[in-house]
Amino acid sequence: MQSIQNIHKTDNDTKFGATANAGSDLKTTIQVTNTYHFEAFDPEGNLKWEETVCNLVTNVGLNDLLDKYLKGSAYTATFYVLLTDGTPTTNAADTLASHAGWVEVTDYTGDRKALVLGTVASQSVNNSASKATFAIDADSTTIGGGGLATVATGTSGVLYSVAAFTIGDKGLDSGDTLNVTVTCTAATA
Fold first, then answer.
1. Mean pLDDT estimate for the chain
2. Share of the chain above pLDDT 90, in %
């Protein structure tokens, strides 16, 4: 019989400790990390800037992970990439409906962008073959990070994770394009 123990969260990863209760001292810690790579291009296709950051998995995101995978409740693997404003302050208690440290950026065409993941290999999966692409439609748009949610619009879904840039805010203008590659990894630590 196994039990989840010692959930540890930092700004860069989330670790789950599992112990076997069959009379042995076997202990395994699993580290779950999401990395976001942002690439901004001007209207001519020139790279303006790029940033790579790790995320914070929110409390509701951890609950969703446990509920959907370990408990096995009804599940659809649909996630959407969102953008945050400048200098976001992320918190494990953040939800889509309540996140005092940041504001979602919507200065782009359409809804949040679908996360289309490729094949899982070596405990990693990403959307590099189908990056989340945001067509910016407002001048002087400030981006400070991004995240993953379970709904394309609104606040009724789960905010799985959120990440803040480490080297400061970045600017975009109308006509620019922002591509986001999300890499999800799991490893025993």
1. 85
2. 64
Per-residue pLDDT, 56: 81
Torsional sign, CA 40, 43, 45, 46: negative
Which residue from 115, 100, 109 is spatially nearest to 135, judged by alpha carbons?
109
Residue tagged 């975009």 (tokens): 172
Other Cβ atoms less than 10 A from the Cβ of 143: the count is 25
Q: How far is CA 176 from CA 46, 95, 110, in A?
A: 10, 29, 15
What residue segments make up the domains of the chain, in order of their start?
35-182
Q: Give the phi and the psi of residue 71 in degrees, each rounded to 5.
A: -80, -30
- Give 132's contacts (C-beta < 8 A, 6+ positions apart): 81, 113, 114, 115, 179, 180, 181, 182
